Amino acid sequence: MSKPYGILGAGRFLHGGDYNPDQWLKTPEYIDDDFRLMRESGCNTFSIGIFAWTSYEKKEGVFTFDWLDRIMDRMAEEGHNVILATPSGAKPSWMAHKYPEIRRVDRLGLREPVMPRHNHCWTSPVFREKVHTINTELATRYKDHPALKMWHISNEYSGECYCDLCLARWHQWLEEKYGSLDNLNDLWWGGFWSETFTDWREIDPRNTAMDSLEVDWHRFTNFQLADFFQWEAIPLRKITPNIPCTTNFMGANEGLDYSTIAEVVDIVTDDQYPCFYIDDPDLVKSAVSVSFKDDLFRCFKPDRPWMLMESCPDATQWRLPKRLKRPGVHHAEMLQAIGHGAEGTCYFQWRAGRGSCEKFHGAVVDHSNSSETRVFQTVADLSKKYEKLTGILGTDIKSDVAIIYDWDCKWGFRHSGGMPSDNYAYDRNIQDHYRTFWEQGISVDIFRSERDFSGYKLVIAPILWMLKEGVAERIKAYVEAGGIFVMTYCSGVADETNRVLMGGLPGGGLREFFGLWNEEIDVLDPGSTVPVVGVAGNELGLGTLNGLHVRAVSHLEGATPLATYSGDFYAGSPAITVNHVGKGKAIYVGALLDVAGLRDLYGPIVASLGLEKALDGTAPKTVATQKRGDYVLLENFSNEPATVILTGKYVNVLTDEPAGAELVLEPAGSAVLVAA
Ligand code: GAL
Fold first, then answer.
1. Which residue lies with its CA nearest to atom 5 of ligand 1?
2. Which of 83, 75, 84, 120 is nearest to 102 (CA)?
């Protein structure tokens, strides 16, 4: 149940962006213009000081906050929210020179040069002390300031450091986790290639032969980030206990387990820069991946709203070709986030700088300093829309379907060798399952395998590679109680240290439970296909589906085959099975299916469960539909107009007109309806 939290949901959508007045102190007339333009744009929320450390502490230990005092006061006068940043995202040049140990050491063991941002060591006591001091100064100075509404801790934490201090911390972390080297050697299968360790200091994280080590290194890296966040937050949480703390995430990322970092933030915030080019044949795929990420992040803290901290009002300067955002696209992108539970959408950046490498990055105010630009007007129009949409604030999203997305599974699968697990394969795979629900406007919750899934009607676990403690038991209890659990090839393969489960796959008792033994897995060239043919009279009514290049070769041990492979030496063997257990069903999908095949698979399941769809009506597959409370948000991710048929009675919230029986969305058009 999503409730207002902090500034989120408190009466208005947050709309604004990263604002860097510290770069304009010598031309205060532009700062005056900023406040006028902010008013004109209808924006209300600004993240300040993200990389401003040098402006506060030009000389070590000598702090100046005059400029920020003035800005904070003006923000308060205007009724704007300030999300005040801690400046650790970019350390002052003097600091990086004076204390080289705060700079990272790379994988080759080289200390990095003085780089501009995001490259500090996670462990350095010197850097931690400097951060603690500046954060304490900021919190003490602004603790009672009416404009201060949230802390923006650092910026997009990421990266690894291999300095002696970080390595010592790694060894300590391993010792705390495994207790003894003997235990670690056993669990990591240390006899392989003579990789048995006799001293913790021998464990080099760059050893790519040991997949258990690689998985643990990812875990450790995320532990370091979360730990640094908590370190930064100590003075903030002590001095300003009522001001929530966040740090901005970076969407889907191979190495960053945001589910772990989400545990230490008060509010989940994300940055997104999708490729929404409306003439892109893969536009729907991009839209699906953004929705997937939004649902994943929404579920980190299901009881609170989340917000988009950064997005771009126009073209990003780092993506080539640097294509302008086509009309409609920006509103569709923002409403999509709102539809998935966001209660704020902000930008990088409010005003484009005059110099340095992001000066041509999209901004609400460009170098013309004008409010007449297309981008400014688009943003101002969105503010007006948000005023009409405040009824959405605090509304719920209800999902009867859950998908398990688990970083441990992703890393275990990725690092095991011999698996169809190139970069992002795990994500692509899961998103294909998700897409079939997206296309129908069926809301999906997404979370890792530790989360309780007992309340859902349908749970899908693509590539549930790693079986963590208690998960197999919870799957069994869920199905016995009446749930439908769908699991794919490459599931139940390994334990938490990534050692293969013995006794035939899927392990952990799931072989018996699914009534099937997956003996082998055939991994062919991408592009290879095999028809997967429904068994006559199968209960899902499956016909012929397109099986792709990954095929679990299995034997029935009690399950009922729903479809079999029609080619190769395993022709006739089960590709999709169901085992009826208790009141529920355990479905095993051994074949990697294309999206059309997944549609065919889930169609009858959706129908049998009577799953609720966002829209009472029908929309083309390019149209995203999301439901929040009584509101339905629609976005057309296509360069063709889309005709949406409305069966239910709706009012078009943006025009206050009855919506009628048909709604035509322009290319990249969007709309918000409310049940009449
Ligand atoms: C983000 C970053 C911003 C800005 C932006 C440009 O990743 O947080 O500071 O650099 O990218 O797209």
1. 348
2. 120
CB–CB of 91/60 below 8 Å? Answer: no
Q: Which atom of ligand 1 has the smallest separation from the CA of 117?
A: 9
Per residue in 366-380, pLDDT (tens digit) is: 999 999 999 999 999
- Residue 280 pLDDT level (bands cut at 50, 70, 90): confident
Distance between CA atoms of residues 139 and 656, nearest Å: 44
CA 25 to ligand 1 centroid distance, Å: 22
Binding pocket residue ranges, ligand 1, CB within 6 Å = 155-156, 271, 273, 310, 316, 318, 348, 358, 361
Residue count of the chain: 676
Tokens standing for residue 147: 């404009």
Is 156 labeled as catalytic in the residue annotation? yes
User: What pLDDT is recorded for position 464?
Assistant: 98
> Residue 337 class from Cβ within 10 Å (0-12 exposed, 13-18 middle, 19+ buried)?
buried
- 242-263 per-position pLDDT tens digit: 999 999 999 988 789 999 999 9
Q: Does the structure show a pLDDT above 80 at 298?
A: yes
Mutate to test the pocket of ligand 1, among 51, 310, 346, 358 (most ligand atoms within 8 A of CB): 310
Mean pLDDT of 319-345: 95
**Residue 361 alpha carbon to ligand 1 centre in Å:** 9
Torsion on CA atoms 67, 71, 76, 82, rounded to nearest 10: -110
Q: Which of 269, 347, 358, 359 to mutate to test the pocket of ligand 1 (most atoms within 8 A of CB)?
A: 358
Report pLDDT for 118.
Answer: 86
pLDDT for 88: 98
> Residue 554: beta bridge partners?
518
By the 10 Å C-beta count (0-12 exposed, 13-18 middle, 19+ buried), 619 is classed as buried
Distance 317 CA to ligand 1 centre (A): 10
Angle between helices 164-178 and 211-239 (to 10 degrees): 100
- Do the Cβ atoms of 330 and 382 come closer than 8 Å? yes
> Are 427 and 252 a contacting pair, CB within 8 Å?
yes
H-type alpha helices, 114-163: 125-142
From the CA of 250, give the closest atom in ligand 1.
7
How many Cα atoms are found within 13 Å in the side-chain-facing hemisphere of 266?
Answer: 19
Q: Give the residue, by CA position, lying nearest to ligand 1 atom 12.
A: 316
Quick one: DSSP state of residue 294? H
Q: How far is CA 272 from CA 105, 154, 316, in A?
A: 28, 17, 11
Examine the pLDDT at 1 and tell me if it is beyond 60. Answer: no
Quote the ligand 1 centre to 483 CA distance (angstroms). Answer: 43
Q: Are 577 and 533 in contact (CB under 8 A)?
A: no
Catalytic-residue membership of 77: no
Nearest to 263 by CA among 86, 407, 454, 386: 407
Q: What is the per-residue pLDDT for 589?
A: 98
Residue 2: predicted pLDDT: 62
User: Ligand 1 center to residue 348 CA distance, Å?
Assistant: 6
The ligand 1 atom at the shortest distance from the C-alpha of residue 248 is: 8
Out of 57, 160, 232, 310, which one is annotated catalytic? 310
Per residue in 106-161, pLDDT tens? 999 999 998 778 899 999 999 999 999 999 999 999 999 999 999 999 999 999 99
pLDDT > 80? residue 424: no
